[in-house]
Write a structure and sequence with these properties.
Elements (H helix, E strand, L loop, with lengths): L4 E5 L2 E5 L2 H23 L5 H25 L3 H13 L7 H19 L3 H6 L12
Antiparallel strand pairs: 1-2
InterPro entries: Ubiq_cyt_c_chap, Ubiqinol_cyt_c_chaperone_CPB3
GO cellular component, one term: mitochondrion
Organism: Papilio xuthus (Asian swallowtail butterfly)
Length: about 130
């Protein structure tokens, strides 16, 4: 998304979507295709309940996107997002574990940022980091 630009021509601002939007949309489409496939694998599942759960997952996903996006600018905000999303605001959460997850997220984002967007767009081959190494 950082590749999006705003250009000014003839005193008008023009917003141009970069490859970041395309890559983001592909990731989101893959997520929902995976969800749909897994729902189909639930033999005998009540369709109304499955639909309700997918709707709830969608709402949680949207909230997580906003929280993590805000957290990109500050470790405290990211830690708060991790605590909400991973630990459901539990008072029993270990601060060291949250710190480890924040460090892992920062490292993963740093590695992804090194990949040219054209490589992500046309030949998305990369290896996800392991949280066990952090």
């Amino acid at each position: 998304m950082a590749e999006d630009v705003t250009s000014i021509t003839n005193d008008k601002k023009k917003y141009v979507k970069g490859d970041g939007h395309f890559v983001r949309n592909c990731v989101i489409e893959a997520l929902w295709a995976d969800v749909a496939m897994r729902v189909k694998l639930l033999e005998g599942a009540n369709p109304a309940i499955a639909r309700k759960q997918v709707t709830e997952l969608s709402e949680q996903f949207q909230a997580a996107l906003v929280a993590y996006d805000e957290g990109l600018s500050d470790d405290k905000i990211m830690a708060s997002a991790v605590w909400r999303r991973f630990y459901s605001l539990s008072e029993d959460a270990n601060a060291m574990d949250i710190e480890k997850i924040v460090h892992f997220i920062r490292h993963q984002v740093s590695e992804l940022d090194k990949i040219p967007s054209k490589d992500l767009k046309w030949k998305p081959v990369f290896t996800w980091l392991s949280i066990n190494d952090h």
